[in-house]
Amino acid sequence: MASLGQLVAGVAHELNNPISFVLGNVHALKRYVGRLWTYLEAVHADAPEARLAELRRSLRIDRILEDLNPLIEGTIEGAERTRDIVDALKRFSAADSNENVRFNLREVLERSVRWVIKASGTHLQVVMDVPPEIPVMGSAGQMQQVIVNLVQNAVDSVGRKENARLEITGRAKDGRIEIAFHDNGPGIPEQYLPRVFDPFFTTKPVGKGTGLGLSISYGIVERHGGRLCAANHPEGGAVFTLALPLA
């Protein structure tokens, strides 16, 4: 339930920007309609040329006409962005389906990072270096669930560290993509490394974790023909590596 709450908060933050943008544009269009209507009434009433010129200047009709196209285009863009977010949420909610389609893992990665960072309100600096196109087959919703878990674990690991950082790097090799999630937290105690993917195993305090996130993620990755592994990075911190076959 805690993970669901974090996800919903992230979606709310993500939706807020395009919805606010659309709302602002619609309010502007509503004001413009009133001014245009006043001007058109004067035109249809055969008002004198001087009166029409004065109305055109005072109502700023030329400025309205210049603004109409950008306002409409911006509203469409905001609505399409909202639609894309809702579609992504639908795919996430269908994470248990047997969907097997081609999708760009880069898009899922970027979306998941945004949602977790906004939901947690963390100051974590995320540096991403992955190919722009990562075609894989499977369920985008399930893979989003995996990445959300990995990023959330990094957020929990670094805590309130001043220079909290997560590096996400991806390299394609021999028909596979390997994406490493390297945080600069304290790392994983050596005695716990063999157990991090065990069901119900967690090093978090009671009430902070169920111990199921990484276990479920491990199973999802295996079903996609990939592998998920954990280690401590030579430079410090933990590193989780997600490997998947390319489509």
Radius of gyration: 25 Å
Which range best describes the helical content: under 10%, 10-25%, 25-40%, 40-55%, 55-70% or over 70%? 40-55%
What structural class should be given to the helix and strand makeup? alpha+beta
Q: Which term fits the overall shape?
A: elongated
Overall pLDDT: 82
Number of strands: 7
Outline the biggest β-sheet.
Answer: 5 strands, mixed
Order of helices and strands: HHHEHEEHEEHEE
* Unreliable sequence segments: 206-210
At a glance:
The protein contains 6 helices and 7 strands; from the N terminus they run H-H-H-E-H-E-E-H-E-E-H-E-E. With 247 residues, the chain is of the alpha+beta class.
Would you kindly provide a written description of the structure presented here, covering whatever features stand out?
- The chain is of the alpha+beta class.
- The chain has 6 helices and 7 strands; from the N terminus they run αααβαββαββαββ.
- It has a 5-stranded mixed β-sheet. The chain has a two-stranded antiparallel ribbon with strand order 1-3.
- A hairpin with a 2-residue loop joins strand 4 and strand 5 (176-183).
- 29% of the residues are buried.
What are the main properties of this structure?
alpha+beta; five-stranded mixed β-sheet; two-stranded antiparallel sheet; 6 helices
